[in-house]
């Protein structure tokens, strides 16, 4: 099983940028698809972006397309989320997850980080 630790969250003004990082431990990192989800207070955990185990394909929620970019480095066992043109509605706890990008459902991911708070002020 892989263990995940997120970093890089914080407070930013609308229009600004943040870069989230997820560090994974375990020798099986390169076997997993990776994804970022987010959860706002009182809402469900939603898919944000995903990347195949070999980085051959990336996937994005419609709400972040063109603004967010997911990337991974299997040698360093990290996955990053570059977030540009941030909006107040991007405010949420962001989670890194390892599993399988089949339906992009949280149930497809068996390993989760503890989450990192992103707050975008208007």
Mean pLDDT: 96
Q: Which class do the helix and strand fractions yield?
A: mainly beta
What share of the residues does DSSP label as strand, in percent?
over 45%
Order of helices and strands: EEEEEEEEEEE
Could you tell me the number of beta strands?
Answer: 11
Number of helices: 0
- Roughly what percent helix? under 10%
List low-confidence stretches: none
The radius of gyration over CA amounts to: 13 Å
Oligomer: single chain
Overall morphology: globular
Beginning-to-end CA distance, first to last residue: 39 Å
Largest sheet: 7 strands, mixed
Provide a quick synopsis of the model.
The protein is an all-beta fold and 122 residues long. The protein is built from no helices and eleven strands.
Give the SSE map:
Elements: E1 3-7, E2 10-13, E3 18-25, E4 33-39, E5 45-51, E6 58-60, E7 68-73, E8 78-83, E9 92-99, E10 109-112, E11 116-121
Parallel strand pairs: 2-11
Antiparallel strand pairs: 1-3, 3-8, 4-5, 4-9, 5-6, 7-8, 9-10, 9-11
Task: Give me some keywords for this one.
four-stranded antiparallel beta sheet, 11 strands, mainly beta, seven-stranded mixed beta sheet, 122 residues, single chain
What does this structure look like?
This protein has strands spanning 3-7, 10-13, 18-25, 33-39, 45-51, 58-60, 68-73, 78-83, 92-99, 109-112, 116-121. The protein contains no helices and eleven strands. The strands form two sheets. Strands 2, 4, 5, 6, 9, 10 and 11 form a seven-stranded mixed sheet that branches. It has a four-stranded antiparallel sheet with strand order 1-3-8-7, with no helix packed on it. It is an all-beta fold and 122 residues long.
